[in-house]
Design goal:
- The protein is of the alpha+beta class.
- It contains 6 helices and 16 strands.
- An 8-stranded mixed β-barrel has the order 1-2-3-4-6-7-8-16.
- The chain is globular.
- It binds (1E)-4-oxobut-1-ene-1,2,4-tricarboxylic acid (NQM).
- The site of (1E)-4-oxobut-1-ene-1,2,4-tricarboxylic acid (NQM) has 15 residues, from α6.
């Protein structure tokens, strides 16, 4: 059987850290073409379902249970297609309903390593179609002498040490999972009695002020993770929001995420606590942060009042999160109806951790 053969031969696999996530990267041709068979194989490689993933390659968190499937693209003006799959940890779930901007940081280097894209002499720009959201990102990273250079001096919050920059520029991220930037049709809604802005610029996210949930917004990850009553409220809130966003029943989906906002307190421009979708994030997702900032920039949105202090001469927005800062670049043209995203982007790093053959459990 197919199962048996993968246990004997294994599967060609590269593990990379992308931003603050870690994932298994595959070429599509090395995986079963049938999605059900592919998902079954991926769960057995990752060691899901098991809270420790002791018999697999996962790291016992959702941020380390991620998959990238990469293939040459037949779309015009695109080099490779990238399908992101979020695996559960203790539940046997595989979801293609969300994208991941952190794992994305590893896709360009992976494509060059595997010869899917020819490297430039100094740096390489890889045009990546993000299949989950049918949008394009351009990843630019150093390739001196035609080889990917992972070493560099860029530090990002949540990752020890420094590494080479991977600059990610996004286009067409509006409505990534829902079809529109403001999926409820409003810039502000009242959900479960709480003022909310539902926004989708790369990631569907529901924004609310931390104060609306009786929080300061400066709670630690552990405090939030231990507050069961809060997490239940967050879940009810995001499920109701999902209905208004036309996403249907999301009880087993990893989207929409929730982001709670507060005034900055560490030199940034907003302080965030995000939930993916119910467990608190140790930092914040890339596309999650891009969506948060996009929402806040819209007049009338939750948190828009905080943007009054933002410098007008820069599009670099410093987003505070539980373990540091994430700088995102978002430019919105609010003069049009509906508002239009002119550009968004972020700087990440990535590192190849191993390249070899991965063996699934039975
Ligand atoms: O928002 C976590 C992460 C993410 C997603 C999650 C992400 C993004 O931090 O682009 O990267 O939302 O589950 O990797």
């Amino acid at each position: 059987t197919v199962r048996g053969s993968y246990q004997d031969t294994g599967v060609r696999c590269t593990m990379l850290r992308g931003g603050t996530s870690r994932g298994l990267f595959f070429e599509a041709q090395d995986l079963p073409a049938d999605p059900a068979e592919r998902n079954d194989l991926l769960l057995r490689l990752m060691g899901t379902p098991d809270p420790l993933q002791i018999d697999g390659l996962g790291g016992a968190t959702t941020l380390t249970s991620k998959i990238a499937v990469v293939s040459p693209s037949d779309a015009p003006e695109v080099d490779v297609d990238y399908l992101f799959l979020q695996l559960g940890v203790d539940e046997a779930t595989v979801s293609d309903r969300q994208n991941c901007g952190n794992i994305l940081a590893g896709v360009g280097p992976f494509a060059v390593e595997r010869g899917l894209v020819a490297a430039g002499d100094e740096e390489t720009a890889v045009r990546i179609r993000m299949v989950n959201s049918d949008s394009v990102a351009v990843a630019t990273f150093p390739t001196p002498g035609g080889r990917v250079e992972y070493r560099g001096d860029i530090e990002i919050a949540g990752v020890p040490g420094a590494a080479a920059p991977v600059v990610l520029a996004f286009t067409d991220t509006e409505g990534s999972a829902t079809g529109s930037l403001l999926p409820t049709g409003h810039v502000r809604d009242t959900i479960e009695g709480i003022d909310a802005t539902c926004i989708d610029n790369g990631m569907p996210v529901v924004l609310a002020l931390a104060g609306s949930f009786g929080l300061t917004g400066y709670e630690s990850h552990e405090e939030l993770a231990g507050d069961t009553a809060l997490l239940e409220r967050i879940d009810a809130f995001r499920r109701k929001a999902a209905q208004l966003m036309g996403m249907g029943d999301v009880s087993s989906a990893s989207v929409p995420k929730t982001a709670l906002l507060a005034a900055p307190r560490d030199g940034g421009q907003v302080c965030t606590r995000s939930f993916i979708p119910v467990r608190p994030h140790t930092s914040i997702g890339v596309l999650g942060a891009v969506s948060v900032v996009t929402g806040m920039l819209l007049p009338g949105a939750v948190g828009h009042e905080l943007t009054a202090d933002w410098p007008t001469d820069t599009s670099r927005v410093d987003v505070e999160h539980p373990t540091g800062h994430l700088l995102v670049d978002v430019v919105v043209d609010g003069a049009t109806t509906p508002p239009r995203v002119v550009r968004s982007g972020v700087v990440r790093t990535a590192r190849k951790l191993f390249d070899g053959t991965a063996f699934p459990r039975a």
